[in-house]
């Protein structure tokens, strides 16, 4: 028994009692089951297990605090209507917004933030972290931290571009198909079925080995692979709108397809489409990372999180966590985007409570 | 006097005192029911009437201790058999609902679970509350079906909801509410979605069964004639406040408040009837012997009628009679399979796609549901301005002036409405915008598809007056599709009666409303509830209980 363990249990039990006294049911249940769980963990894992719990709780509390502060910050600086929307956002969503904003800043100002160039060899291979290199060096002696900052620009930028292309073609085709119906709808539907029936990563590998691995090809290939999903969604969303009376009124007025899509259908389908954009972005981002890991994505020496994981993979066997940092960056962004999308879907579905 | 003494002696079942309910909107709680008192004795039926938004349904639900999502009871008490429902916990409330208090919703079709048979849904509550065993409860269900005069009472419960008609479904739902023999049933507009001929049998069934089991009921509706048949006393609501309450007969004959009087007088609005111009005037629209079909199903057969300039032709019939299909043929959404449609003497191309811009401009449409007829994401100025821009190429200041003119025409202040979105408007205002959109095209012919049936009576009257004024001003021809004969009586010049895709009878209104009628017209006319509280009883006596609703239709 040392002071840490004693303090740990005192705090938990004291907090449980307080929660029980003030009839905070959920808080009490959470705290007390944590106390009970800690008894078992303490017996099995000893003091380190308790440290782990403490640190995790601290990290969660820190994230929650940041999210809360960030949300209040947004509420103050944003214009009226947007700030009212943000006010109702759950903490997870504001956490997502915070992470996305951090990544965006890192990507946009990469040359300013990063202390070294992404391809600059400044040290020996796998040099440990020091005052100059925050996260040590990679397998060629380049600064890991700088490469992660540049990676935000390369990986995220490429995924964003590819998603935008997939979205543009998918959504336009889907909306036209829903509005016109008939043979165009059928033809597009079958083409989409064919593309979707091929496993995406294998299809991507195939196309990339045929057309080479330049960035342009990569973006186009991913755009082609992902546009069918967007097609299906936008067709389904628009399908619910084209049966409305106001569309009938516009058709009877003699309006053309393009007007119908632009002025009548699109304003009513933005919410689900934006949510889908976020979701789709996560998938594309993971696909880009996966392709880079396999060596067919972004080519060296350009910094990219997927390939950084592969290049430094050997370090894992020496107990180093360096290769996990870019992997963590990928995971964090995906989770953050999903948090935001969840919030948007919730809002657009019109559910309350 | 003896009546009131009797009801005082009867046991008090439900007593609501100073009930206040709040709704959550725009981040704050707003009071929507402002202190309502209500007393209900055993076996008594209370009619709750008022416009939409008056808080009728909210009070009805509160009588079960329930509030919709985003609402809460903020004050007062609801005393049901000595138990205060505002403070009772969820378990206590759950044990009341279904067993002691039952609820019959407006749309039975939407309230039954389509995946289960009627009788399984019927027996759920009694079995759950251990009041009856499943088989016992099934037999009871058949007995109730019999009493509610459902056809094949032994067998109908084993069907799925989509296999029975709307009126039958509504009666099955009433039977379900009766399953535990509750002390109180809340009927929330149970016949609003039904045709008049079907409505009458549901009303008769509800009245009988409530009588037989001495059940108390709260009957919520916006139809005065209906409530006159059902209720012992009537409470009139307006914007969450009680206007007045009195015994049915007194309320009908001698209402005290101005608001109640205005509700009563709506039905008396009448417009002078016009007749066809003499000589060989060319009708604006002439429908000649058209047939139409959805796929292989034939829905219209040999339909012909003429609409002359400045006149209103009402097309009446029950749902499924083909009135809206005839309108779709005229607009060109559904090209007829035979026959032709003349516009000012010229044949129109059968599909709207083949029509010229000017032909499209001439015929406009106003829809039943203003909610789906106006794009929620487009500003009013754009909704009304688009046709003016599209057909006449107006833009800039001229377009703005035209939109202002149109808003003036429909009696909405241009400055307030120019930049608003449809979702910010009330039902009547939305319908007015729909009218303005049709007018913006400068048409000579407008199809009004049930334009008033989704509106409250006072608002509907305003719309009818507006349409009438516009007709005089612009010499418009109206095709007025409706199932509401009261509306027909007030505004039509000529009437076309449709049944199962054919025209049963047509002619000038005065001839159509004076006997002798075609038997179907007669059935329709005699099924419209009247304000006389004895009306239902009289009709039932005249026709016999087995000769109303679907049974009567089959005999045609």
From TrEMBL, chain A:
It is found in: Cell membrane. Belongs to the binding-protein-dependent transport system permease family. The chain crosses the membrane at residues 6-22, 27-44, 50-70, 91-113, 158-178, 198-226, 277-298, 324-346. It comes from Candidatus Sedimenticola endophacoides. One of its GO terms (biological process) is transmembrane transport. It is a multi-pass membrane protein. Its main location: membrane. This is ABC transporter permease. One of its GO terms (cellular component) is plasma membrane. InterPro entries: BP-dependent_transpt_permease, MetI-like, MetI-like_sf. Residues 152-345 form the ABC transmembrane type-1 domain. Keywords: Cell membrane, Membrane, Transmembrane, Transmembrane helix, Transport.
UniProtKB/TrEMBL annotation, chain B:
It is found in: Cell inner membrane. Residues 14-264, 285-525 form the ABC transporter domain. Pfam families: ABC_tran, oligo_HPY. Transmembrane segments: none annotated. The keyword ATP-binding applies. GO terms for biological process: peptide transport. Keywords: ATP-binding, Cell inner membrane, Cell membrane, Membrane, Nucleotide-binding, Translocase, Transport. Its main location: membrane. GO terms for molecular function: ATP binding; ATP hydrolysis activity. It is a peripheral membrane protein. Signal peptide: none annotated. It comes from the Bacteria. GO terms for cellular component: plasma membrane. Belongs to the ABC transporter superfamily. This is ABC transporter. It comes from Candidatus Sedimenticola endophacoides.
């Amino acid at each position: 028994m040392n002071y840490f363990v004693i303090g740990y249990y005192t705090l938990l039990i004291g907090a449980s009692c307080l929660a029980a006294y003030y009839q905070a049911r959920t808080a009490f249940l959470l705290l007390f089951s944590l106390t009970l769980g800690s008894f078992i963990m303490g017996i099995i894992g000893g003091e380190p297990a308790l440290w782990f719990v403490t640190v995790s709780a601290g990290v969660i509390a820190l994230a929650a605090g940041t999210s809360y502060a960030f949300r209040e910050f947004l509420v103050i600086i944003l214009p009226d209507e947007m700030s009212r929307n943000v006010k109702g956002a759950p903490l997870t969503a504001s956490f997502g917004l915070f992470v996305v904003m951090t990544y965006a800043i890192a990507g946009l100002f990469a040359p300013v933030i990063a202390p070294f160039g992404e391809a600059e060899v400044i040290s020996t291979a796998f040099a440990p972290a020091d005052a100059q290199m925050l996260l040590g060096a990679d397998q060629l002696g380049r600064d890991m931290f700088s490469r992660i900052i540049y990676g935000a620009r390369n990986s995220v930028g490429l995924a964003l571009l590819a998603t935008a292309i997939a979205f543009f073609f998918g959504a336009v085709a889907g909306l036209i198909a829903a509005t016109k119906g008939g043979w165009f709808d059928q033809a597009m539907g079958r083409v989409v079925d064919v593309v979707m029936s091929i496993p995406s990563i294998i299809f991507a590998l195939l196309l990339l080995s045929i057309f080479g691995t330049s960035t342009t090809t990569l973006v186009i290939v991913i755009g082609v692979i992902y546009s069918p999903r967007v097609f299906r969604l936008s067709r389904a969303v628009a399908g619910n709108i084209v049966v409305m009376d106001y569309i009938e009124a516009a058709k009877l007025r003699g309006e053309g397809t393009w007007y119908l899509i632009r002025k009548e259908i699109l304003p009513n389908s933005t919410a689900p489409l934006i949510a889908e954009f976020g979701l789709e972005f996560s998938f594309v981002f993971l696909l880009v990372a996966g392709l880079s890991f396999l060596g067919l994505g972004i080519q060296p020496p350009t910094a990219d999180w997927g390939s950084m994981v592969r290049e430094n993979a050997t370090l894992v066997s020496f107990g180093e966590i360096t290769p996990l940092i870019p992997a963590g960056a990928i995971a964090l962004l995906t989770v953050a985007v999903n948090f935001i999308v969840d919030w948007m879907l919730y809002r657009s579905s019109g559910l309350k409570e | 006097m003896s009546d009131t003494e009797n009801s005082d002696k009867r046991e008090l079942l439900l007593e609501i005192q100073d009930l206040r309910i709040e709704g959550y909107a725009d981040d704050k709680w707003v009071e929507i029911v402002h202190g309502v008192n209500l007393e209900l004795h055993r076996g008594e039926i209370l009619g709750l009437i008022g416009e939409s938004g008056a808080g009728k349904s909210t009070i009805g639900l509160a009588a079960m201790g329930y509030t919709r999502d985003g609402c809460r009871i903020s004050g007062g008490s609801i005393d049901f058999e000595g138990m205060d429902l505002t403070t009772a916990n969820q378990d206590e409330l759950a044990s009341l609902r279904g067993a002691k208090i039952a609820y019959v919703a407006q749309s039975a079709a939407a309230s039954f679970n389509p995946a289960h048979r009627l009788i399984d849904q019927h027996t759920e509550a009694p079995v759950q509350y251990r009041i009856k065993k499943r088989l016992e409860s099934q037999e009871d269900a058949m007995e109730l079906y019999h009493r509610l005069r459902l056809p094949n009472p032994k067998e109908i419960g084993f069907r799925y909801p989509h296999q029975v008609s709307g009126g039958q479904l509504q009666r099955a739902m009433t039977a379900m509410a009766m399953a535990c023999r509750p002390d109180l049933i809340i009927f929330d507009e149970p016949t609003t979605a039904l045709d008049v001929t079907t409505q009458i049998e549901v009303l008769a069934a509800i009245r009988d069964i409530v009588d037989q089991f001495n059940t108390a009921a709260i009957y919520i509706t916006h139809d005065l004639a209906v409530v006159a048949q059902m209720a012992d006393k009537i409470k009139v609501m307006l914007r969450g406040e009680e206007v007045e309450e009195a015994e049915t007969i007194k309320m009908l004959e001698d209402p005290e408040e101005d608001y109640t009087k205005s509700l009563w007088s709506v039905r008396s609005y009448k417009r002078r009837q016009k007749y066809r111009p003499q000589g060989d005037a060319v009708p604006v629209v002439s429908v000649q012997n058209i047939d139409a079909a959805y796929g292989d199903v034939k829905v219209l057969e040999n339909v012909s009628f003429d609409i002359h300039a400045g006149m209103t032709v009402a097309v009446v019939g029950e749902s499924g009679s083909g009135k809206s299909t005839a309108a779709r043929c005229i607009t060109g959404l559904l090209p007829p399979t035979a026959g032709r449609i003349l516009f000012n003497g010229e044949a129109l191309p059968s599909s709207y796609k083949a029509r010229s811009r000017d032909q499209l401009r001439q015929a406009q449409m106003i829809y039943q549901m203003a909610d789906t007829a106006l794009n929620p994401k487009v500003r009013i100025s754009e909704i009304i301005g688009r046709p003016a821009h599209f057909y006449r190429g107006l833009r800039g200041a001229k377009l703005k002036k035209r939109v202002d003119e149109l808003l003036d025409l429909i009696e909405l202040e241009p400055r307030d409405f120019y930049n608003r979105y449809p979702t910010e408007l009330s039902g009547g205002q939305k319908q007015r915008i729909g009218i303005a959109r049709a007018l913006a095209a400068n048409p000579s012919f407008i199809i009004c598809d049930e334009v008033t049936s989704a509106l409250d009576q006072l608002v509907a009257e305003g719309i009818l007056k507006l349409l009438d004024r516009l007709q005089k001003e612009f010499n418009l021809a109206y095709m007025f599709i409706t199932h509401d004969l009261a509306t027909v009586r007030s505004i039509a010049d000529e009437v076309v009666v449709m049944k199962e895709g054919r025209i049963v009878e047509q002619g000038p209104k005065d001839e159509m409303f004076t006997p002798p009628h075609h038997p179907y017209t007669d059935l329709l006319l005699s099924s419209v509830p009247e304000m006389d509280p004895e009306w239902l009883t009289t009709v039932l006596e005249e026709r016999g209980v087995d000769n109303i609703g679907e049974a009567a239709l089959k005999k045609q």
